[in-house]
């Protein structure tokens, strides 16, 4: 599903978190929002999700204006950096939650929930761990549960906010490869926030580089690295090398 962001601005108090940002995401694309801390990446992701609302501008899903719709009405899957799993629930219950918030028309019946949870556990390679609690899992496993819960919603868009930020380098690398493969199999439109340029290059079809609430450059990942369009992009990519 394609996303259009049209002239979106967002202010917190006197601080302009986003200044007149416009962007198109093609259906099935894997897009990375890259930039230093405080550049507005999370704010833009949350505005796409409906977790935050723009002061000005619009968000369109497949040509339809969803700017005033809630996160639930927008039907998106969101994965946070710190898992945000329900600690008192088993892995299976966490995933079942995603199934239960689906619109009534696509919600599995009570009897089908277990089978759907098992399919999702297989998809994220956590077979046999459905009875565990989040605290009994590693960070990488927890983030795969969070992803399974997001996918259980059958989202139109998958939005990930630094999902591997809390994990160590080796697990990050494994999960990146795995997420990209999963994306290629499912073809779901994905927007991924990161401040790690290597991660953006490895994962994304296109990269959006942000600074101070504005987009500095958008392009194919390799092209952005090969030909930074502004001094900011040049410095940002150069300095983090
Ligand atoms: P990034 O994801 O690129 O690190 P953010 O979008 O999280 O940037 O934040 C951009 C700026 O907006 C930050 O300086 C942050 O302090 C500010 N900000 C974000 N959310 C809020 C909020 N709810 N209230 C006040 N300020 C906020």
TrEMBL record:
Does the UniProt entry include the keyword Repeat? Answer: no
In the UniProt record, does the keyword Nucleotide-binding occur?
yes
Keyword annotations: ATP-binding, Nucleotide-binding, Sulfate transport, Translocase, Transport
What domain of life does the UniProt record list for this protein's source?
Answer: Bacteria
Among the GO molecular function terms of this UniProt record, one is: ATP binding
- Gene Ontology cellular component list: ATP-binding cassette (ABC) transporter complex
Q: Which residues form the ABC transporter domain?
A: 3-237
Mind telling me what this protein is named? Answer: Sulfate ABC transporter ATP-binding protein
Measured against the full-length protein, the chain present covers: 1 to 241 of 386
């Amino acid at each position: 599903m394609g996303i259009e962001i049209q002239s979106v601005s967002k202010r917190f108090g006197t601080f302009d978190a986003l200044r007149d940002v416009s962007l198109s995401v093609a259906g099935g694309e894997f897009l990375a929002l890259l930039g230093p801390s405080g550049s507005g990446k999370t704010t833009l992701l949350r505005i796409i999700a409906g977790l935050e609302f723009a002061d000005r501008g619009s968000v369109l899903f497949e040509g339809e204006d969803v700017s005033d719709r809630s996160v639930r009405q927008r039907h998106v899957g969101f994965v946070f950096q710190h898992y945000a799993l329900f600690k008192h629930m088993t892995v299976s219950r966490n995933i079942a939650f995603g199934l239960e918030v689906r619109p009534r028309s696509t919600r599995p019946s009570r009897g089908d929930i277990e089978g759907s949870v098992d399919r999702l556990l297989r998809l994220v390679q956590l077979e046999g761990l459905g009875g565990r609690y989040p605290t009994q899992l590693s960070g990488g496993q927890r983030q795969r549960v969070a992803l399974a819960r997001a996918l259980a919603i059958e989202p139109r868009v998958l939005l990930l906010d630094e999902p591997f930020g809390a994990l160590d380098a080796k697990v990050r690398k494994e999960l990146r490869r795995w997420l990209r493969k999963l994306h290629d199999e499912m073809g779901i439109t994905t927007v991924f926030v990161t401040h790690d340029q290597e991660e953006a290059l490895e994962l994304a079809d296109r990269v959006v580089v942000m600074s101070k609430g504005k987009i500095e450059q958008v392009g194919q990942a390799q092209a952005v690295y090969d030909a930074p369009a502004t001094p900011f992009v040049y410095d940002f990519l150069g300095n983090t090398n």
